[in-house]
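Annex B. Sample input.
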Amino acid sequence: MPDLALAQAQRELATTTGRSPSQ
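Annex B, continued. Sample output.
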């Protein structure tokens, strides 16, 4: 399921950018 991998990659990128810190 590439969807999950893509979602995780996007989330990691967002976290790196500090756009939407989930944690």
